[in-house]
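## tool: complex_structure
## caller: assistant
## args:
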Amino acid sequence: MNRRDFLKGLVGTSYVVLSGSSVLAPLNALAASGAKASDGWLTTGSHFGAFKMKRKNGVIDQVIPFDRDKYPTDMINGVKGLVYNPSRVRYPMVRLDFLLKGHKSDTSQRGDFRFVRVTWDKALSLFKDSLDEVQTKYGPSGLHAGQTGWRATGQLHSSTSHMQRAVGMHGNFVKKVGDYSTGAGQTILPYILGSTEVYAQGTSWPLILENSKTIILWSNDPYKNLQVGWNAETHESYAYLAELKEKVAKGEIRVISIDPVVTKTQQYLGCEQLYVNPQTDVALMLGIAHEMVAKNLHDTKFIEGYSLGFDRFLPYIQGETDGVEKTPEWAAEITGVSAEIIRDLAKVMTKSRTQMLMGWCIQRQQHGEQPYWMAAVLATMIGQIGLPGGGISYGHHYSSIGVPSSGAAAPGAFPRNLDEDQKPLFNSNDFKGTSSTIPVARWIDAILEPGKTIDSNGSKVTFPDIKMMVFSGNNPWNHHQDRNRMKQAFQKLECVVTIDMNWTATCRFSDIVLPACTTFERNDIDVYGSYANRGVLAMQKMVEPLYESLSDFEIFTRFARIMGKEKEYTRGMTEREWLNKLYTDCKNANAGKFEMPEFDEFWKQGYVHFGEGKPWTRHAAFREDPEINPLGTPSGLIEIFSRKIAQYQYDDCPGHPTWMEKSERSHGGPGSDKFPVWMQSCHPDKRLHSQMCESEQYRETYTVNGREPVYLNPNDAKKRGIKAGDVVRVFNDRGQLLAGAVVSNNFPKGVIRIHEGAWYGPVGEDGSKEGGAEIGALCSYGDPNTLTQDIGTSKLAQACSAYTCLVEFEKYQGKVPRVSSFSGPVEIAL
Amino acid sequence: MSTETANPVNQARSTIYQLLSSLFAKEIDHKTLHELTSTQAQAFWSQLAAEASFKADVDVLVAEFAKLNSDKALLELAADYCGLFLVGTKNSASPYASLYLTDTPVAKGDEPLLFGEQHQQMTQFLKQSQLQVQSEFPEPADHLAVILAYVAHINMHCSNQQQLEFIRDNLANWLATFVAKVAKVDTGNFYIALAQLTLAWVNSDLEWLESED
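## result:
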């Protein structure tokens, strides 16, 4: 048959095969007129910075820093890759077996399964049905909707607020206390210094630069970490770091980085490094304290006037309580720092104005409370707390802390809780004798061992029997420890709901996945300059939400509608009305102090600037008069010995700072005979935790062989036959991962680094197949939490201990599997 | 552009492009299945199978239709669709032209962003024809379903030469790579057959257009 005859034969049969409508429609009038009104530059912002974006032909074309951001991070180059990412969650989706069997589905499939697309109405109904089922069958202790994280910036669309208000309108649920970043620090420091300190504004950089003679960066890498901020970051701290660099060069300020590795900050400043064995900082501090006492370098007057309990601590230093005198020689043995250097440090720190700047890493380890407590004791012994350029800070690497605050009021947020007169649909508060709030990092314990009672910060916590979890703008399959243990726990859950913009591992281990749009697809409002509170930013919508994604406000407004509570939820206001309200409330709060235009004018301008702030010294008021301005501790003074903590009688957190051996420690410590290498998994240089790891082209700028870099000491690498660029298998008894070797002298013998936030991409145990729901799966990309230990820091904070982690590594000999982290859900071949 | 080309043959070609577009645009539901298996549709499929290069794939499709006799079966097929076309790009066969027209190998993970150059190009084509992508179909314009639907449109409104050029430069230049990806990652039979049928149809249509010159 010739083709023409064939086609003619089709004529009769093919007129109406499908009656459905086409994916094409007539061009609407606006688009037809070629209207380009919507193209042009708009203002917006994110954790990575405030910036301007150019919209061209309806898509984001260019991203450049905000005029007032003089030190933008190059992560700005990854922003477009977040929006137009191939791994976007494009439609509401439900895991097929969950759709078919609901709470009786085969949960061992989570992680390598089949999803189907459903309508928003269907997805939200399933979500509500699941909540109904859990509240009816188990009550509020069956639901954990309190695991929240870094979300995206914006006060109106904050994913945490929306999810918790909406789910809270349905019923009560288990919540968390603390966070993964500073869990130990924020728990111990209120006992010692009267506040969490980690999230408090610190002494202003200009005063530090003017007055400090010595700056101790203790396990602290501000040059790396200040690239991102909790609000729209404008990176003002970098101007001060630049000044500090000059002063270091001129010999005006001595900066000592106490750290096992050569940090990015150390390289930038050109400052000194004092190497210390990993996890031994407390021993080093005790050795310094011993020397201060021995040489009478400590400020006894300050100790007497401003602190409590030095007399209970001194016998420990002198070995009277445990028979071990904490001499510099004793410390040298543990820390790898010579006694001579320890003696010198004691002298240096006490002879002139010394500012201690603590990083957060050292409290993310077993007994992570101790280094923070002991550092506060050292600062007390130095006696400069409350003086400009002296004392101690736990936050100068975070969100513009140390940049003088404008003093203006910031805009409020969409409410996270129910309004006072509102009641949830399921109003039970019966947690069946279990705890309604659990330490943030202990939720996997709770799922695995419901009913178990643990100590926690002076009370008892009994784990609720969690059956369902809801996550929004949060990726615990990044930040929690020990993936294989997480898999066991997730198999016990009946339902997992995740709301996110891209297919994170958390989405992949869920049953219902709902697509949220990115920050750039909605209107919002936020502070810029983070702690400096430099101004208010209009976050102007760049493009309409892609695919079927929705803003958080819209997602949960629809959810509230299904509950019959839409008006209660929104208070009857639209997105625009909320923006106006949040802004106008802020304007009213600043009336008479800071000029702010009306909302419409502000929106047109894109921002309102509050101006510079005044330099300020942390704890100065306390120093001036500790009776009138006491600390928030039980005594109002710095507590070197805490009677309260001592009363808890915790073996892993006694009444004063104490050196305790770790369950795993390199450089001759426990377990180092089997797994000799310490793995640090600090905050990444090119991401905000796991945010932006998915941004393809930007990721390519730092990956090695398509994998997350693992930083190796040259001798360690050579010993194992590894060259730069090789694929390396890192492993211990808990798990295994592949990463790409970077060989660098910045890393000492026995220490490797893999930045946290590397997306989990399990493949079969031997790397031979896609998928990876099974226990023991190999992570194809290099997520360090495949290897970390899921234990609490102590009975006090019960915080995460990711830094207490030993591993071994080798050149990978197997067939190198494809990276599966960025592909959306992967189906395992059955 | 002219309308004189809207003869019955072009009408038939257009209907086939439109059908293929619809099958790539969304999952098969009860209503679609009913239409695809109606008496009229059966006549259509058997006529299509009369062409040797289509027969094998048409036979698979017709056999697969027969198996779609329960909600569960439809959901399984919807899961195939989802895994292939709605999530990620690396272990799936996302139906966007841009992913297959890049110079860098996909295996390297260096993929272009969506809503990029090909999307803009297709948007321009649509605009020239006074068309746009339906708001109910919130996908980039370089989605296979959009391109097929656009061919269905130009079948009726453009000269053979114009059709030939468009198909050659915007569809045939990446379709085979896409079909190979579907064949590699599809765990079922339906979408492999549909993709292969689409490729065979487009190739034969190109031949026909060339022979008509």
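## assistant note: Chain B has one domain: 3-104+113-212. The longest helix of chain B spans residues 190-212. Handing back to user.
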